[in-house]
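Reopening this one. Same input as before:
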Amino acid sequence: MNFVSGPLPQNASAPLLALRSPINQFAYDYWKRKCGQRRMPTRDEIVPAEIVKILPHVFLLDVRQSPLDFRYRLIGTKMDEHMNGRYTGMWMSEIPHQAAPSRIWANCRQVALEGAPLAGDTPYVGRNKEFLTTEDLIMPLSGDGETVDMLFVTVGFV
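Same output, byte for byte:
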């Protein structure tokens, strides 16, 4: 499967039409509100009480810049149900189907290095065989406004 879209425009005020999932549309609108005039919000600005309806579909990934890797800090309950194992606390490099050069790794890498959100279709690898792909929305977070230190990810199953 190919990407649904490239990096999302930094000045977009409405959800992208390419986002098929209402979960991802809601998350993108929320992320943009939290950005304000900045490139990206901080982790502290993502308030669970404000996104209760999408929390089961959220991942938070820590970003280690050198060497580049991504650690699962939080996995929403719906996401946890569909994964092949318990990944909380694990680095993507430790998970064979997610390590580089997988598509999810490449997408996370792009967002971590460019500091811009990315929407894409990722082949589904998990317990539920009725899904073929997931629509992923990966949005950067930064404590200093420049370096991406966390990824705010939402997933819709297609």
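So the earlier flakiness isn't reproducible anymore. For the record, The first helix runs from residue 22 to 35.
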